[in-house]
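Quick question, first post here. What does this chain look like in 3D?
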Amino acid sequence: MTQNFIVIGNPISHSKSPQIHQTFAAQSEIDILYQRQYCPDNEASFIAVVEAFFNGGGGGANVTVPFKQIAFTHCQEQGNLSEHARVAGAVNTLLIRGDAVYGDNTDGQGLVNHIISLGWPLKKARVAIIGAGGAARGVVLPLIQAGIASLTIANRTLSKAQTLVTELSAASQTIEKQAIETCTTAELTGEFDLIINATSIGLTEHTLPIADSLNTHYAYDMMYGRALPFLAHFAQRGAQVSDGYGMLINQAALSFECWTGKAVDIAAATKDLPSL
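> Answer (accepted):
Ran it through. Tokens below.
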């Protein structure tokens, strides 16, 4: 029997999720139909799409921009949330558990899984995140659960970084127990084991105001698909670097496993996928 999945977004025609999940399905030897689902940018339309899909027997849905927060609110009010989704305040994976909609967020764990697969050490690592928006919010808990030693969140506007830490600490005792420092991006100095760029500045013509005294062994940019100045900067200083393509594959694999119970061989799947 064919299992049906969708990704809901606006815009959505650019999404690579169908290719990724069809590759996973071929590896797992199961029959799926995974389609892009455009949705008007409002809460009522999103809920109507979700309810119609699951009432029609849909197996699972991914959620992308601009609906991750709406999906979170819907699950909070009408169903249940995973800890990662609750802390992130956003949902990228939907399924039915029992008789209710269940929301998960696989983005942060997808990042952690990719970093681990690269062989980069996270246990006891000194980590800095640049950016204090939704992308940063989703990765803090998985990084702490991976056993990092320290975390600094830097943002162009200091107050936004401070607010993020306050909100995350209130949402999770695990985060509350972790001392998290904050600073502006320009004030981020010293040496870290890992620096993660959680901003989308690499997709613009602008660059981050990186201090000359800032150094790292490993640099990760959550963006992908083009040359990224953040990675070029640290590669010139001898750091190992990676863009977010592997995060994309890993977060999708976690969604696929949520829906089907099938674990994905990430290395094999990545080889089978064309450059996205």
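The chain has two domains: 3-105+247-272, 109-243.
The radius of gyration is 19 Å.
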